[in-house]
Design a protein that fits this description.
- The protein has two domains: 82 residues, Penicillin-binding protein 2a (Domain 2); 329 residues, Beta-lactamase, CATH 3.40.710.
- It is an alpha+beta fold and 581 residues long.
- The longest helix has 34 residues.
- The protein is built from 20 helices and 23 strands.
- It is 35% helix and 24% strand.
- Strands 2, 3, 4, 5, 10, 18 and 19 form a seven-stranded mixed sheet that branches. The chain has a five-stranded antiparallel sheet with strand order 12-11-23-22-21, with helices on both faces. A three-stranded antiparallel sheet has the order 1-8-9.
- A hairpin with a 2-residue loop joins strand 14 and strand 15.
Amino acid sequence: MTKKQRGQNWRLNLILILFLAAGGFIVYRLFDLQVVHHHYYLALAQAQHQSEEKIKAQRGKIYLTDKDQNSYLLATNREYYNLYAVPLEIQKLPNTQEETETIAQKLEPLVPLDRQTIMARLQKADDPFEPLAEKLTDEQYETIKQLQLPGIYFYQDWKRWYPQGKLAAQLVGFLGQTDQGEVGQYGLEGYWQQVLAGQSGQSNQQKDATGDWIGLTDQTALPVIDGSNLYLTLDQNIQFMIEKKLGELLEKWQALSGSIIVMRPKTGEILGMCSQPGFDPNQYATVPDINVFLNPVVQSVYEPGSIFKPITMSAGIDSGRVTPQTTFTDTGSVKIGGYTITNAAGRSFGQSTMTNVLEQSINTGIVFVQQKIPKADFREYIESFAFGRPLGIDLTGELPGNISNLKYERDIDYATIAFGQGIAVTPLQMINAIAAIANNGQLMRPFVVEKIVGPGGNEQKNQPTVLSQPISSQTASKLTAMLVSTVENGYDKVKVPGYYIAGKTGTAQIPDSQTGGYQEQYVHSFIGFAPAYDPQFIILIKMDQPHGVRFASSSLAPTFGELTKFMLNYLEIPPDFSAGQ
């Protein structure tokens, strides 16, 4: 083979090698694309031709009702205008600094941001979207729209709306913004989050190379399921009235705070529940103290004082240790170990019956009852009234209270607990326990949701539930008569012509966490039910740290009487003519 031929063969071999290498590379790339990274490139292609759109579910509504079963919106959804800026546009305007200052000056009185904050947001030169305000009112929207500010725009979005403002705010809670998006917080919104939220949907659609939808292609979708609606046991008119009366009460006595609960003792339905100070859930982000979001009726505890005495008395009567006619001689004080227990204002009542003990709220008399009951039995009675454990109400954050002093079995602890000191309860536990006396000794589970109505119209009703029977119906009847005598003949006078009313007040000192003793500050309570022998409602009023009044019988009895008259008239409850005038 000549040298020339060898050169030609070498070139042919090189070309062949290059072709083989190129072919091998193509085969490798095809294998890599079609086998090794098949799923990655498939997903990439689908992303270019398919669009996944999340469909937001409509949150369920919350309704109040009234005695005629009319419904009133407490929480719903509405479309709001939101305000945002496009700094990218604003920073390209002539006289940028002057224009930015003008925009910030005009927006400052209309949005919840100061001028410096607005300026800082408008000066983000490469920012295409900067939020300025959410949930604008109609007035805010119209005013800002008329300004025609450059680089300032609106967009619409569905938001939670509470059409009744502060009404039942701590009970309803609010829909708050979290890292997980909008989530119900506090009250009903928190407890019923999953039921109210529903389930978001998803749609998958295909696009052509130009980005237009391909109408004939198959679409797969995850259906959206809207949230269910809640219908409450709360009565619109009762709720309005108790909030009005509570506001007047706190203002009159310059009190720190307070709560009122109205309940049906036979079923556990809550007809009204309010606490003040309150807040507007539409403006929850502007509230300086987040503690106001808590519902004190279920999320705070206090020493109830003398309204606890009927519980001790019921234990004494039910166990057969005393009767309403049992007598003891009151000297004004009783010594237990190194401690001395006295009556309010240092009074002494001499020979007194057990009915007199409740009428005159005699501390030494209720200690007399407690000392006749074995400690284990006394503790069992208190636990059977559900003190020291949650009642299971359908609201978030219910506390169990604290009855831990009972486990030490010290004589002084049992004596003070007998008249409501050294024990911590929620207002809900207190009204529910006295409601058991009103309800022939049966303790009911309290609830605020009457029924849940799904998006398809299916209903799920909440049925009354008996938790326990702490005392017999006979004991309950005797206690009722004693509590009627208490409001007729004792300090806690409430007169409603034609009706028997049962009730009891409590004036409790506030514990001092620093010294272990008690402050010279008080909590006033009044609890009662009517008509006494066929109770349709029970009311608890609690007022914290009032000024200018010493005893609850003076501060709360008038308001309790007004609410009782309102309830009897509103519910059209016929008078008990045997009650006289």
